[in-house]
Each structure stands twice: as C-alpha cells, then as structure tokens.
Amino acid sequence: MTAGVLDKARDVRAEDSIDVAAVDAWLKQRVDGLEGAPNVKQFPGGASNLTYQLSYPGRDLILRRPPFGHLPKSGHDMRREFTVQSKLAPVFPYVPKMVAFCDDRAVMDVDFYVMDRIRGIILRSELPKGMTLDEAGARALSTSFIERLVDLHAVDPQTAGLADLGRGEGYVERQIAGWTKRYGAARTWNTPSFKKVVKWLEANMPADSGSCIIHNDWRLDNVVLDPDDPQKIIGVLDWEMATIGDPLMDLGSMMAYWVEAGDDRIGQMFRRQPTHLPGMLTRAEVVEHYCASSGRQAGDIRFYEVYGLFRLAGIIQQIYKRYHEKETTNPAFKRFWIATNYLHHRARGVIKRG
After folding, report:
1. What tens digit of pLDDT does each residue of 300-332 get?
2. Could you report the per-residue pLDDT of 75-111, keeping only the tens digit for each?
3. pLDDT in tens, 270-289
C-alpha cells in the first residue's frame, strides 16, 4: 500500500485560522522534544468540530476545537471529549493517545485539545486514489467495522472509569425529546417539520434495550485503517458525542449513514463512506451481523433506523443553520438543506415499510 492513500490535511480555510504562535508556545511548555514552528494544515472531512494537523520534525499532532460562530450549550465539549478518550484508551485500544487539554482563553477563544496522530487510511465517499478493495476485502472490512462496535459496547463503563458519563434509564425517551427540540430550533424555511416522523417515534418508542458506552457517531470515515492491511481498523476518531446509552440507538445512528449500492441518486450524492462497493454488507446484513456478534435482539429495527435518520437530520440541520445565517461560508454545507429533506423522505419510507 503506497503512502498516497494516507489521509492528508489541506491548507487551513481562512475563516478557520488559529493563532499558531500561541498554540505552539503553549504546547512546548507541556510536550518535550518539539522543535521549530509547526506546519499547520486542516482536515476537510469534519462538519462539526474542526481538526488541524500540527507537523513538527519527527512528530505529527492533531488539534481539535469547536467550530467558529454560535455554539449550542450541550455541544462541542472539548474537556469531555478529551476525558472520555483518556479513560477509554486502556480498555479500548483504538483510541488516539491524548497529549494535552487547554482551557486558557489567552491561547484560544475556546477549549481545545491535542492528541497524537494515528497514521493510516480514512475512507471518504470514494476509495482514495491508489487503493483497491475487492469484494472479499470490502466484506471483511464492513464486518470488522461492525465487530469493533460490538467490542465497544462490551466495555464495562465502571472499569473504564466512565460510569458517570450517562444519566441512567430513559435514554431512548430523552433522545427523542432532545432531538425533537434541537431540530425545531435549527429548522429553516426550506426544510420539513418532521412532525409525523416524531409522532411515529413517540408512538413506537421501546424501553431501553440496555446500557453501555456508545460512540454515537460510528462511521467508516471515523475509523483509521492500517495502510498495509486496509481491512484492519487501527483507530477510532471523533468521540464528541460518546456517552452511556442504548446500544441499539448507536446501531440505528450508524445505519443512517449506510448508503447501499441500490439506493437512489440523491442518497449516493450525500454518501460519506464507500458502503456502496461490491461486497459491503447491506443494512439488513449489518443488523444481522451485529445481533449475531453481540447476542442482542433488535426487535422492530425500524424504530432505531428512523431514529438514526431523524437524528442525522438534526445534526445536518444544526450545521446548515450556521451556513444559512452566514456564520460559516464553507461551501460543503450549501446543500445540506437538501439532505435534510432527503432524510425526511427516507424516514417516511422506513415507517411505511411495515
């Protein structure tokens, strides 16, 4: 596997620029062996928190900070994200190594943290140039991806020191109420109300199926693959929304991103990971493999699938509202309102599936 398929950062967008000198001085007080000024690049994939690469001679570091503009009260908690990964690393070996956390407003206007970079392949909507994945390899990767989720759900929160991360029973109910409120606050004139979808979710709400550590953003573009064996996952990124909750809700959230080869043109347009490749599991096979590997029963999977689609619409709409109100000019967000409408269409289709 050539170095050309490794995930690469790009030049920092002007609107996302940071005070490199201040960050460099702060880091050198806490990390031994850093020399010279870092070469700073930005990873383009994230649509929520911003991710930068700070390259020093012999060491690449990753900086994570919230986006610029208005931030919701409950989101973008850098201290929480840093703490979750620090405590999870000893019991879940795919977590990046945390380096330092900063809440000093003299360095940056918001909290941020720095971690070591995991060098590897991160898949986007298409395979990177120079990488091939045959049908057997695609199937092996997709099954491994589900099995790592099962591994995470098997971690004992008490052993990890994360037992206080959740709020106890009632997770399903809190999520439906919470995303209903968040979507309503982020809705713009060109997006649907989701009233019938929410009414269906409320009427078909099951009790919590269990309680465990969940990632809440489990996607193929949030995992790092071994450059020499791209079927092997060596890292899991973006722990911003990790919590203790219902594992089937985590599965439903993941399925919302899982676009199959047979899905329509609009679905393919918004696809963020190459789950359309020959050999990749279908959504039905994802559920089957998860249940077989975890020993859990999914019941009426439609509820979790519709929840995932509604939740994703809420996430996308929060991002789009920032663009709509000109808090960001990132062109990647321009058509997110179309994605919100499409997710509404998909959710209604799953409900009608019976």
Report:
1. 999 999 999 999 999 999 999 999 999 888 898
2. 679 999 999 999 999 999 999 999 999 999 999 999 9
3. 999 999 999 999 999 999 99
Residues 287 and 139 in one domain: yes
Q: How is residue 81 written in tokens?
A: 């994200």
Question: Do residues 171 and 91 both lie within one domain?
Answer: no
What is the band of 2 on the pLDDT scale with cuts at 50, 70, 90? Answer: very low
Are 119 and 60 within 8 A, CB to CB?
yes
- Whether 107 and 240 map to the same domain: the answer is no
Average of per-residue pLDDT values in the chain: 94
44 domain-assigned: yes
Quickly count: other Cβ atoms within 10 Å of residue 291's Cβ: 17
pTM over 0.70: yes
CATH of the domain at 156: 3.90.1200.10
Phi and psi of 104, rounded to 5°? Answer: -85, 110
Does residue 122 lie within any of the structural domains?
Answer: no
Residue with tokens 């920092």: 12
Q: Which residue intervals of the chain are DSSP H helices?
A: 20-28, 78-88, 135-153, 157-160, 171-186, 195-203, 247-255, 265-269, 283-294, 301-324, 336-353
Asked whether the beta carbons of 182 and 217 are under 8 A apart, the reply is no
In a domain, 24, yes or no: yes
Task: Give me the CATH number covering residue 56.
Answer: 3.30.200.20
Query: Which 3 state secondary structure label does DSSP give 226?
Result: strand
Q: Which of 340, 315, 344, 353 is nearest to 204 (CA)?
A: 353
Q: Is residue 42 part of a domain?
A: yes
Which residue range(s) make up the domain with 10?
Answer: 3-116
Tell me whether residue 90 is exposed, middle or buried, using C-beta atoms within 10 angstroms of its C-beta: 0 to 12, 13 to 18, 19 or more.
exposed
Query: Quick check: 93 and 12 in contact, CB under 8 A?
Result: no
Report the pLDDT value the prediction gives residue 130, as an integer from 0 to 100.
Answer: 87
